[in-house]
Specification:
Layout (H helix, E strand, L loop, with lengths): L1 H34 L6 E5 L5 E5 H12 L4 E3 H8 L3 H10 L5 E3 L2 E5 H11 L2 H8 L3 H4 L15 H14 L3 H15 L1 H4 L6 H6 L5
Antiparallel strand pairs: 1-2, 3-5, 4-5
Helix pairs in contact: 2-3, 2-6, 8-9
Length: 208
């Protein structure tokens, strides 16, 4: 009987902690929505190469909440709000296997590494690193951080990258990064011996 009581107390405490976390997020999100009527809610952030990144405070805060959260998982409602999607869209992604949810003592939750992976699909990495600021070096592996690359390519390839970026509403950097990810996956086995970090980076953020 005593063991049951102790387990129940622990479960209640865990539930209370999760509930408090979700209530705090709802309160903060309401405050953010109210602040969007203020012109000061938009700030200019700068990346390592001093290129302006126009970002809503709400976007910055959502990214930071995903990557810097100390807990191992997120409630479904919180996960959907952080990604900027509806609960229906989140459940569809879970059903399709795009996002994995796990059952816990306080209900279905989205693991932190799953939400990070989803965030990397939602926002281009330059935006994520700008939002994280100095914290990027702490939460992003060095091998995955952005670096400056200069290359000479045929004019039509440059124009192609620009056209693709415009079509998808993103940057040339993002288009090129995602294309190179496909190349890395296609040649992972042969490149693993010459690029030691490749396998780990392709699996990241599985161990976040």
């Amino acid at each position: 009987m005593r063991e049951f009581s102790l387990c129940q107390v622990a479960l209640d405490a865990k539930f209370a902690e999760a509930l408090a976390e979700d209530r705090a997020f709802i309160r903060d999100r309401q405050n953010v929505l109210l602040s969007l009527t203020n012109e000061g809610s938009v700030r200019i952030l700068w990346d390592a190469h001093n290129r302006g990144v126009h970002m809503l405070e709400s976007t910055r805060d959502r990214i930071r909440r995903i990557f810097l959260n100390r807990g191992p998982n997120f409630a479904l409602f919180t996960a959907a709000a952080l990604l900027g999607i509806t609960m229906r869209e989140l459940k569809r992604d879970i059903d399709d296997g795009a996002i994995v949810a796990v059952s816990t003592g306080v209900g279905m939750r989205v693991p932190k590494e799953e939400l990070i992976a989803a965030a990397m699909r939602v926002w281009e990495q330059g935006v994520i690193e700008a939002a994280l600021g100095d914290d990027a070096a702490r939460v992003l592996p060095a091998a995955i951080r952005l670096v400056l690359l200069r290359a000479r390519v045929p004019r039509y390839q440059r124009d192609m990258l620009v056209a693709l970026a415009k079509r998808h509403g993103t940057t040339v950097d993002d288009v090129l990064t995602r294309e190179l990810e496909d190349v890395a996956c296609a040649h992972a086995e042969e490149l693993a011996t010459v690029v030691p970090a490749l396998s780990a980076m392709l699996a990241w953020p599985g161990q976040a």
